From TrEMBL:
InterPro entries: ATPase_NBD (IPR043129), ROK (IPR000600), WH-like_DNA-bd_sf (IPR036388), WH_DNA-bd_sf (IPR036390). Residues 1-25 are annotated as: Disordered. Gene3D superfamilies: 3.30.420.40, Winged helix-like DNA-binding domain superfamily/Winged helix DNA-binding domain. The lineage of its organism: Bacteria, Bacillati, Actinomycetota, Actinomycetes, Kitasatosporales. This is ROK family transcriptional regulator. Belongs to the ROK (NagC/XylR) family. It comes from the Bacteria. Residues 1-12 have a biased composition (Pro residues).
Length: 402
């Protein structure tokens, strides 16, 4: 008679099952990122590109479709004209959105983004004052107003971005000297005002994530540097699909690096600090002193240059050259594969991009491109914080309404 043998008390199968949820999340993330990068794409192609089994891909695609993240493309493709048609999958841009909040010095940008990082709706809210609770309350109200325009969409969450020192894990703006903010609990305040999950990060890192997910220059690369030169000047560095944060998210604080040739006095007491030299405030003041424009908005300098004002064009090129020196300083240390620059002259004028590249050796100059989001950079920065979380853990999705 055959006897059944009981398994040993510590079977190796149980730890494997315990790890299944983590593996499932990793596989779901892999499938969603594959569709983001290659969609519309057939399930069989997803299996080939990811190395997952066809059955696993089918299972994950069904779950992601249930969550509203994937959809079947409208035009099925047949293989050899026989059998069932291939129904390629794509990211579903029609049902879900994320909210984005970017707090700049003169105004807050609120926006809704679809799952491919494209702006669905956007609004700028000028600051009558910069008291943190009132700024964040106005932002929450602005998001609610935008969501009211698209009642067919469900919000997944809110991303918040700002310059200065932003602690992603704590959800706080630790220090934003130009706004006068210290230890502002942005995540807690916005979550209480919106009832949605809120994710927080610095805007240079947020834009690095946006480039990594949606931009042609950084997506799929092994390393990328993003330099943001606005009123605040900071940077972010990504390697192998991860943006570096450092302890308490202090990575990328480059404001007081010395810039060769810099002459602008800094509040720290030195001369030629990178932010003092490159800040849009400096550009506007120089334009005002030169009689180019009213010197309140850097876009006015761009407009004056486009209208043929030679001094405006010179100021923009000079700033771009200094940005090029900053790029050279950072790339000497980090040696990234690609460099993305968000700077107003480089975005709008080919001569400024040429001036920036002229400060670099030809090999390095060829790696430098402007931001992939020239018309919506601040809106994308806020939304990208939430989209980065989504694409890292799509199975955590729980759509709600404001």
């Amino acid at each position: 008679m055959l006897r059944t043998v009981a398994p040993p008390p510590h079977s190796p199968a149980r730890p494997a099952r315990a790890a299944d949820p983590d593996r499932r999340r990793t596989s779901a993330r892999t499938v969603l990122r594959c569709v983001l990068e290659h969609g519309p794409v057939a399930r069989s192609t997803i299996a080939r590109l990811t190395g997952l089994s066809p059955a696993s891909v089918t299972d994950h695609c069904a779950r992601l479709a249930e969550l509203g993240l994937l959809r079947e493309a409208s035009a099925p493709r047949r293989s050899g004209g026989v059998g069932r048609p291939h129904l390629p999958l794509d990211v579903d841009r029609s049902r879900l959105v994320v909210g984005g909040v970017h707090v700049a010095v003169p105004y807050t940008t609120v926006a809704l983004l679809d799952l491919r990082g494209r702006v669905v709706a956007e609004r700028r809210l000028r600051h009558p004052d910069t008291e943190p609770a009132r700024v964040l309350e106005r932002a929450a109200g602005g998001l609610a107003e935008l969501l009211g325009r698209v009642p067919e969409r469900r919000p997944l969450g809110v991303g918040f971005a700002a310059g200065g020192w932003v602690d992603r894990a704590a959800g706080t703006v630790v220090d934003h000297p130009l706004l006068g903010w210290r230890d502002v609990p942005a995540r807690t305040v916005l979550r209480a005002r919106t009832g949605l999950p809120v994710h927080v990060d610095g805007h240079a890192r947020a834009l690095a994530d946006a480039e990594r997910l949606f931009g042609p220059a950084a997506r799929g690369g092994r390393s990328a540097l993003h330099l943001f030169a606005g009123n605040i000047v900071d940077a972010a560095f990504a390697t192998h699909d991860e943006v570096h944060h450092g302890p308490r998210s202090q990575a990328g604080a480059i404001a007081h690096l010395p810039l060769a040739g810099g002459v602008e006095p800094c509040a720290c007491g030195r001369t030629g600090c990178l932010q003092a030299e490159l800040s849009e405030r400096t550009l506007c003041r120089r334009a005002r002193e030169a009689g180019v424009c009213d010197g309140r908005d850097p876009l006015h300098v761009v407009d004056a240059a486009a209208a043929g004002h030679p001094v405006a064009a010179r100021l923009l090129r000079e700033r771009a050259r200094m940005v090029g020196r900053a790029v050279g300083l950072l790339t000497d240390v980090l040696n990234p594969e690609s460099v993305i620059v968000t700077e107003i002259g480089v975005i709008h004028r080919p001569d400024c991009l040429a001036a920036l590249r002229g400060e670099l050796d030809p090999a390095r100059a060829a790696t430098v491109t402007p931001t992939s989001f020239p018309e919506s950079v601040l809106a994308v920065a806020g939304g990208a914080v939430a989209l980065d979380v989504l694409y890292r853990d799509p199975l955590s999705v729980s759509p709600q309404r404001i």
